[in-house]
Specification:
Layout lengths: L19 E5 L4 H12 L3 E6 L2 H11 L5 E5 L5 H15 L4 E4 L16 H7 L1 H20 L2 E6 L12 H21 L3 E8 L20 H5 L9 H12 L10 E4 L12
Parallel strand pairs: 1-2, 1-4, 2-3, 4-5, 5-6, 6-7
Helix pairs in contact: 1-8, 3-5, 4-6, 5-6
Family: Belongs to the short-chain dehydrogenases/reductases (SDR) family.
Protein name: SDR family oxidoreductase
InterPro entries: NAD(P)-bd_dom_sf (IPR036291), Sc_DH/Rdtase_CS (IPR020904), SDR_fam (IPR002347)
């Protein structure tokens, strides 16, 4: 008997149909871009943030009703993360995806020899948040049957500028955390990391902080892709990693920097 010839399988037009995804730091910036991508892909999304005004603006501007939930959450506080997760499960009844995106936006700390322990801990906020939120989400993700975690790192995990030790350590830690958790939780839960480069978020903030992006030609030209990144770029990659399209992908890092990290640079 001859083997069956594989058929051409149709691609889903809404790859997150029926999925519920929690995006931390989802009220603005890259987090908002990911949340909007989840909605565009047919999923339901809970956005968690400390900024209540940004959360409210998202719901008012999206107008998609029951497919969204806003949760006030401090991801560096275990009780806050657990309470927020309980809200998500009470509202949607399930959780299929978690995007650990929340953390400080400013990578700079005081010089290490004068930095306080509090400064250091603030630099590590995204790593702490990934721990608390993953810990709270894992039971529901395991029960989902298609659970996926996406951790948002940064190209600062690979290259640095002065006085960014805490932020770099957090983002590098997220990469290691991702592959370790993928091994621990597979095959029930897949875990991957996205490493964004320069992503312009000025017009993706809450209404009070929103502004028009300002770039020079050289800003775009230094990227082999020809432009600075936008939140939609990270959102599209997150949808792939959260959906069944990436069912054979786990424990990996995906760099989305417009090719900038591959370009050789010399001083004039």
């Amino acid at each position: 008997m001859s083997p069956e010839v594989p058929a051409i399988a149709p691609w889903p037009t809404r790859p997150l149909e029926g999925h519920v995804v929690l995006v931390t730091g989802g009220g603005a910036g890259v987090g908002r871009g990911i949340a909007q991508a989840v909605l565009g892909a047919g999923g339901a999304v809970a956005i968690a943030d400390r900024d209540r005004q940004a959360l409210a603006a998202c719901l008012a501007e999206w107008q998609v009703g029951e497919r969204t939930l806003a949760v006030t959450m401090d991801v560096t506080d275990g009780d806050s993360a657990a309470a927020g997760m309980a809200q998500v499960l009470a509202h949607f009844g399930r959780l299929d995806g978690l995007v650990n995106n929340a953390g400080i936006a400013d990578p700079h700390l005081p010089p290490l020899d004068v930095a306080s322990w509090e400064d250091w801990q603030r630099g590590l906020s995204s790593l702490h948040g990934a721990f608390w939120c993953s810990r709270a989400a894992l039971p529901a993700l395991r029960a989902s049957g298609r659970g996926a975690v996406v951790n948002i790192a940064s190209t600062r995990a690979h290259q640095s500028e002065p006085h960014s030790e805490g932020y770099a350590a957090a983002k590098g830690g997220l990469l290691a955390f991702s592959h370790a958790l993928a091994v621990s939780e597979g095959p029930a839960v897949r875990v991957n990391a996205i490493t964004p480069g320069w992503i312009e978020t000025a017009n993706w903030q809450g209404p009070a902080s929103r502004s028009q992006p300002q770039h020079h030609a050289i800003d775009h030209a230094q990227h082999p892709a020809g432009r600075v990144g936008v939140p939609q770029d990270i959102g599209a990659l997150a949808v792939f990693l959260l959906s069944g399209l990436s069912g054979f992908v786990t424990g990996q890092e995906f760099i989305a920097d417009g090719g900038m990290g591959r370009r050789m640079r010399y001083a004039d």
